[in-house]
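One example given next:
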Amino acid sequence: MSFLAETLAFNREFVQNRSYAEIPQSKYPKKKVLVVTCMDARLVELLPRAMNLHNGDAKFVKTAGALISHPFGGAMRSIMVGVYQLGVEEILVIGHHDCGMIGLRPELVLERAQTRGIPPERLDTLKGAGIDLEGWLTGFDRVEEAVAHSVEMIRQHPLIPRDLPVHGLVVDPTTGQLEVLIDGYNMSRSRGAP
């Protein structure tokens, strides 16, 4: 049975048994926080449990490496919707040790894309159009630097309020232990009024 068929079979039972009734249903995060974190599969259950977050407590934005790579990309749009539409009052950027983005080499990714059937001419066309594929696909050397970069990208955004706390943390993907790198309470106070 394919993954999709298995998922749909389970879903039919889930709905028929009204299993959804025990899950909080508000779209507004009860704890008024938004977490930007990595898409790493180890964090799906571990991170919320390590933070005592349950369904309905927080908004999550997941990107490879917890990176906010563009001030007007999808991740920043999600953050802004969280702040201005969904009542988010605090943001936590949480990277993790042993991240797949550490040392990511763009040439290897592009080589694998070609192996999967993307023609080299398409890559040349994108590069000719001024798209920096190598820069876009470059990882980072240290998770701490990546977290600091994402925190600053959010904090310095012209449409984010100056008094919004933006914290930077790193989680151990095995134990769930959190380490604070940037205390957003101190940073937001020092930024002054919006």
Observations:
- The domain at 26-104+139-191 is CATH 3.40.1050.10 (Beta-carbonic Anhydrase; Chain A).
